[in-house]
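User: Hey, quick favor. My workstation is busy. Could you predict this chain's structure for me?
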Amino acid sequence: MTLLSVYEPEMRSRIEKFCADSHVPANGTSYNHLIKTSATHIIRAAVGLGFKRGRLRYAYQILRGKDLKTGETSPETRAENFEKFGKAVDCVLDLNNWKAFLNTLGEAGYISSSQITSENALIFNYAFYLIGRYEFKMEPLAIKKLVRRWFYASNLTAFYVGSFESDFEKQLNEVSELKTAEEFIAYFDRSIAAPCQTTSTPTKLPAQAGKALWLHKLSWDTKPFSAPCRFRNSYPMEPLAQRRQWTSTTSSPTTI
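Assistant: No problem, here it is.
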């Protein structure tokens, strides 16, 4: 953000406003129930979208004017990088894009931050949503369906937990080699199928405190992506024994 303050203070202000608005309930802003965005989130999405890089350290190198292919730094490259970065930021901060993406997750049943195993998963999925929508020219319904499926899979398996930067960059590198929307869809179809073949129970998934990964384990054999589902917000799931009281005279349970 320091380099933005020096070279593009107006861009920094827009990023900070977008992030601040996401914390405060209001209409017509970035506010939502899934994530409180930070400047790091925006920069990650913009660098992923504009430069196909997943590691945050590349953002500093890019804004310094480094050519990531040659390794050379120059004022001319810095100007080019800032222009490219600015266009990506515009796309990321566009409220129509942001709301359309969040609504897509809502249609899949994600309506609370307690359902999100990783904020990075949401931001990286947003980057892929924008890539599919604008670079591969996917129709709105097609990209929404794909994003719902991949977000469900990546959230369920905690795909973006651990070495998430390496995983994200690997995906970006592979996606950058694709030519058509059909190839883009097929790529994520393969990514979705991979954990499906190995994940059988929620106990095999990485544990994330307070996130209740088992709640997301609906069924790989059904199609939870085709219709919206709803969960209670932070509903405490008490053990069955605590919710039922057995009488001494009958074998029928009485729900408390």
